[in-house]
Amino acid sequence: MSRIITWWRSWEITIDSNWITTIAMALAAAACSALLLREASHLVFGNFGVRSLYGPNRFSSVLNVGAALYLIVLAFVSRPWFLRVGFGLVAIAFAGHLFLDYFHAPPSLQYQAAILGSVVRQIAYVIFLVAVVQWFKSVTRWVPRSDSGVDNP
Which of 31, 61, 77, 109 is close enough to 105 for a disulfide, judged by CB 3.0 to 4.6 Å? Predict the structure, then answer.
């Protein structure tokens, strides 16, 4: 048992990135996790599409158009293919919701589209979480512990 504890104390984890990027990636992981949990709860409890029952809201429609266009640009600018797929999936979900709002689709079609949009967004959030985990794996490494002259008990 003491051999394992001795080995554990002899190594440190080092992150080869600046602290601003590391904090931003940790916040991105937390945000994606929260959004994934929200979408999963919507799928389990079946409460999606509440906004489309009241008709299209002009301010949120403008935001949806802006978000969809921004995500399409990110899909073309991103270098890794999986981020392109993730941004494209979220853009499709925004555009689909906007399309159904403006063309006054029947409620049954809106509900089915909301389920499909939730699944698409969940896939995109999982892709984003995998990308963040891969980034953390690429910048972290184990290094031998630097002794400061103080003996650990």
Answer: 109
Tell me which residue of 16, 43, 57 sits closest to 123, measured CA to CA. 43
The residue among 18, 29, 14, 24 whose CA lies nearest residue 134 is 29
Report residue 14: phi and psi, to 5°: -120, 135
For the four alpha carbons of 16, 18, 23 and 28, in that order, the dihedral sign comes to: negative
Considering the chain, what percentage of its residues have pLDDT values greater than 70?
78
Most confident of 6-10, 13-17, 77-81: 77-81
Angle between helices 107-139 and 81-102 (to 10 degrees): 160
Q: How many CA atoms lie within 13 Å of 23's alpha carbon, on the beta-carbon side?
A: 3
- pTM above threshold 0.85: no
